[in-house]
Specification:
Blueprint: E1 2-11, H1 17-34, E2 38-43, E3 50-58, H2 62-77, E4 82-91
Antiparallel strand pairs: 1-3, 1-4, 2-3
């Protein structure tokens, strides 16, 4: 089973695309280190205070996949520089 999450975030303290990309790369690197997930920015690449990332994970059952995705979202929420606004989960 594949669980896909699209996560929109706002960056309130970024003043340029360089600031946003530095923060985003730090967050993506941490997610890839801690979890076996694929992560990529999928929208708003040219907006410096907004992003949408896609996160995909594969598991043999729904329950473990949902638990793992909740831990991933907790890591995203742990970054004080950003606010997670919209999260959509989809089973593929």
């Amino acid at each position: 089973m594949i669980l896909f999450a699209s996560v929109e975030c706002l960056f309130y303290h970024c003043r340029s695309l360089k600031d946003k990309r530095a923060l985003l790369q730090r967050m993506i690197a941490r997610l890839r280190q801690k979890f076996n997930v694929s992560v990529s920015e999928i929208e708003y690449q040219d907006a410096w205070q907004r992003t949408k990332i896609g996160i995909a994970l594969v598991a043999s059952a729904k329950k473990p996949a949902e638990q793992e995705m909740q831990r991933v979202l907790q890591i995203i929420d742990s970054f004080p520089e950003l606010e997670r606004t919209v999260t959509n989960l989809e089973w593929l």
